[in-house]
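A reminder before we start the practical. When you read a complex entry, don't treat the lines as separate problems. The point of joint prediction is that each chain is placed relative to the others, so the output describes one connected object in space. Small molecules and nucleic acid strands, if listed, are placed in the same frame. In the example below there are two entries. Take a minute to note the order of the lines before looking further.
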Amino acid sequence: MLQETVMRQPSRRTFLKVSAAAGGGMLISFSLPGIADAAGGKSATLNAYVRIAPDDIVTIMAKNPEIGQGVKTMLPMLIAEELDVDWSQVRSKQADLDTDLYEGQFAGGSMATPLNWEPMRRVGAATRQMLVTAAAKTWKVSESECETASGQVHHKPSGRTLTYGALASAAAKLPVPDLNSVKLKDPKDFKIIGHSTRGVDVPAIVTGKPLFGIDTDVPGMLYAVFQKCPVFGGRVVSANLEVIKKLPGVKHAFLVGAGEKLSFMAEGAMQQNGLSSGVAIVADSWWRADKARRKLEVKWDEGPTAQQSSEGFAKQAAALGPKTPAKILRNDGDAAGALKTAAHVVEAAYSYPFIAHATLEPMNCTAHVQGDKAELWAPSQNPESGRKLVAQTLGLDEKNVLVHMTRIGGGFGRRLMNDYMVEAAYISKVAGAPVKLVWDRTDDIQHDFYRPAGWHFFKGGVDADGRVVAWQQHFVTFGSNGKFASSAGLDPRAFPAGRVPNLSYGATMMESGVPTGPLRAPGDNALAFVFQSFIDELAHAAGKDPLQFQIDLLGKSEMLPGNGAGFNTGRVRGVLEKVREISGWGKRRLPARSGLGVAVYYSHLGYTAEVVEVAVAANGFVQINKVWVACDVGSQIINPIAAENMAQGAVLDGFGAALNQKITIRNGRVVEENFDGFEPLRLSQAAPVEVHFVKTDNSPTGLGEPPLPPAIPALCNAIFAATGRRIRSLPIDPALLKAG
Amino acid sequence: MQYTLNINGKKHTVDVDADTPLLWVLRDAADLKGTKFGCGIGLCGACTVHVDGEAVHSCRMRVSSVGESAITTIEGIGATPVGAKLQKAWLEIDVPQCGYCQAGQIMTAAALLARNKAPTDAEIEGAMDGNLCRCATYLRIRDAIKQAARETLGAAAAPKGA
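Here is the predicted structure of the whole assembly.
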């Protein structure tokens, strides 16, 4: 979905340079008019990305939202490398949303690296070229005699040197070189890329400077809370507004979407990425708004889904599982027939619950709507979509909606949705003032776009030689009219399709009022658990080493379609072999009730194999002792210190989901309210994670997501190795793992 | 109600309701936004500050109960030797991902190191387990606390050895 968003963007202004890049991407907007007259003493803006001041400070615009993935450091590193400046000269500055100047201003799908790896370097190289040209003209020498280093141009034959700061004004008057033909560095000459570069915002973070959306302060700003119906899709009928309006500090209290459905409101239970019905309270402080909310008495029309529950979904799924799937996704050979003749048959039902994102910074947005204009300060992973939603909701021209991008206190996919932006804008419009809307934790946990729950019913068969000969899988999931709910689908080409001669994938969809959406490694964060656990079951049934079994199943090294963009079985094998080596797989003797588990997955263009070592206590407590990660995201790790952090965090995030997390639906609403009911991983649960990057001759790709999916099955497979108990349902229930 | 608070060694006079949590007084009345709102009920530690040197969840402390106590926030912790060492370790180890929890992490760690100069792993876990990091930067948080502890001890020991 996100890849399409990026690729479709046309150039909207004639001076933009947009052309095809190697590898199928697009080159980004570059030259700007009206900035060529930068006079001496002023900064010269060479393009939308780079500003060079006379004191040689180079300001590089960071165009993407920073959610902790390190993009505000990484994208400028790419430009700075080819610009040939020292990192100490560079200042990274967060750009506003400006789709005329920038492409792909979103954070999602681990796409920043693959989309920007080449274009950003070309921006840097072209800017460098302009500075060289300016120097050569100044000296009246040939450009080929000029070299650059550390933000200076040198003319070797005459020993002359000019700094970029001295050249910038002249360079800004030059035509922009063809981005496609500028020369890029040989990677062996990289001085910034591949060298650990600490996060540009860390000094501000550790000293408590305002950076995040929730820290926004606008003169005259009021504070808002917004109470939505606890039942998804429910609507407000009435509320004790006259009482609320008299409470201290309350400036406005009003219903949103009472009675008749407003034309701009969110459509349908599955698509609530818009304005929901509810009650808004606006006060002179957030505390007073929130306090007033506790006096709120609301009559809701809870709508048609108020009887739904997790328990009900599970019962329905259990009844559907043994039946013929409503939708056949794939049918190779004769799986039913092959199961009859297989040497070993395994039958298993797997399930996983809804889970929430629970970013630590609650949803919030500050909006100021004035007449036909709106200005927003939004911690959004997808601000362009938010701008569109705000414009549609308020009937504004998108050009009149200005979105400032703030640092974001956690994304994980939650902030690809922009419901809180629309709420803030709508409330500001009614209040006639700038408004900061802040959700509380209960709003956040109870009004998410959840990782959908799912149920998988497997039958698998292996022959006497231990080859997988049959695979039958019925996925009971959510959807409507034959269409999967968001992040609730299954790719018919998903591995091991193509490697098992008799294989069928089928799906049956249940209707639900629970909004679903992408959560870090969407789809894969759940599918890896079921696929990789079931493959491990088959390995054990066949009496084979689980890691070698995985390698054997891959077959010859080639590209296979599926799992998104298609993947290379040789690269999967490469990370499996690496993790075998670094974990000492098959070579270590472990104590009783301890074990190693392995899993591998291809996700978001990255390949990751993981081995987990666990010790399971007699009472069922799962102690994770160590994790080994082998990850192939191409030829170059752009920022090693950040990459290791990201990979470790992704693995531990997976463990948090596997060990702790479940969202329970009862009476059409979420039961959990805060971090007591829905708990992210804590420090005492964080096992050491050793990360090895396998460098291969492939263009670099992203790292935010790929290491997460295999963490969960590797953990569950380790628990099986330790206890002989198979985890087929998440979160892991220690009661099932008690000794005896 | 008017309250005069002693925050980071400076007097701040604020006019807020008596039941306002210290968190919102700091953020919205004193304009010190480094202290973060995460859960509102003391489960995540994002709002941790020091009150007379003790780590406190500021979301759970009413302004009316603060009195003349000395409040230290992330904006002021760098003035203490332990706070400065922690900030340095956080920078060198490049701890944060999103960064939202890190003020609370540093404040809890600073209270720990102030009373226990060389905490064991178990003591670090005991002190820090109330501070959630949704990005799970825990391995680096642990390393940074240990580094700061070593450097604090080293700095204290240096004059003796010299």
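Discuss with your neighbour: Residues 1-40 of chain A have pLDDT under 50 and may be disordered. What might explain this?
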